Amino acid sequence: MKEKKINDLKRFFDMRGLKIELEFQFTDRYNYNDIIKLFNTILDNNKNCCFDLTGGKELAIAAMGEISARRNVPIVQFNVRTGKMVCIRNFDYMDKEQKSSMTVSENVILNGGAIATKKADGLKWNLTKDFRRDIEVMWRINGRDTGAWNKFSKAVANIGMETEDGIDLQFKTCIFSLDDRQKKELLNEDIIDELKREKLILNYRLKDGYLSFEVKNRQVLRCIIKAGNILELYTYMVATEIAEEQGFYDDIQMGVMVDWDGVENGRFSKTKDTTNEIDIFMMRDLVPVFVSCKNGEVGKEALYELSTVAEKFGGEYARKVLAATFVSRDKLKKDFLIQRAKDMNIEVIDNIDVLPKQEFKRQMAEKTK
Q1: Alpha-carbon distance 117 to 75, whole Å?
Q2: Which of 295, 290, 300, 305 is nearest to 326 (CA)?
Q3: What are the counts of helices (DSSP H) followed by strands (DSSP E) for the chain?
Q4: pLDDT digits (tens, 9 = 90+) for 36-48
Q5: pTM (predicted TM-score)
Q6: pLDDT digit string (tens) for 153-202?
Q7: Residues 6+ apart with CB under 8 A from 219
Q8: How many CA atoms lie within 13 A of 226 on its CB side?
Q9: Which of 23, 112, 120, 174 is deepest in the core (most CB within 10 A)?
């Protein structure tokens, strides 16, 4: 693990284009005298050096303080949450308000992982002005009845035709082949009329027992056939607007598939990759923010998955947010999940489907500080 961590650090600095020579010294972290001896050796060989105690272990920090006091060595600490350099002793020749930032990819590499080359959804989203409008429209439809939207999405996905590139904008099915429940879900007039009016589905025909229509484009199709995409996209769009208006986030990624050990094994490899998809992954300065989006009832498993991924790729500084249209219709279950989230340091934004956008923005910014 030491060798892997060394390689991860080298990859991290190379990715940032920093020409830094890394030298590693090892000691028993539980042996105070050995730590003191090592620090003295480092000082003897590096007269003009400074100690940084950011993220250090207790004994190492104590030893660092003793050595600094005895030999008048500069000592600093960097506050990851505030982005400020704290001068502990004899250190005043650096910009204390220097901004530090990191990309999502750099954060994943620094924590020993990698972003999988094959994205979870297979599509890179492009938030053009036109598509932002489409997102707003579909979000409005979803907000009127999230359950109906989810059922409609599943029904459309079930009649989709697979092609060589895995996607087709043309849909056609025989209504007679569907049972009453499937017909009700697929022929939801409120949803269809709105999609037709906004030109998100075109050439809609229901005649002689056959239904056919065409979807506007691939991005709209992905929102329609996968119900959860619309909440993720709406949250992603809101986050980008916060960044544009306030400069709040340095990097925002959606649908990030992370590989835990940083090594992607081939399809036919006996070793299978451990991966997780992170709905919205953001960096605010050096603080990673993980957002899990649930466009329907939330189970406790979602909290554990969010917490586990955040611990692996963010550690104690990570911020965790659960963004949901509704946590649960059952009050007791909802209270239980909200309390459990609180105990796990997970911020919850509930009932997003009825929140005005400005309120959603306010809560998102507030809960990711």
Answers
A1: 41
A2: 295
A3: 13, 12
A4: 999 999 999 988 8
A5: 0.85
A6: 999 988 875 444 445 788 888 888 888 898 999 999 999 999 999 999 99
A7: 123, 125, 126, 131, 134
A8: 18
A9: 112
Q: Contact at 8 Å (CB) between 264 and 114?
A: yes
d(CA 312, CA 258): 11
Are 108 and 313 contacting, i.e. CB atoms less than 8 angstroms apart? yes
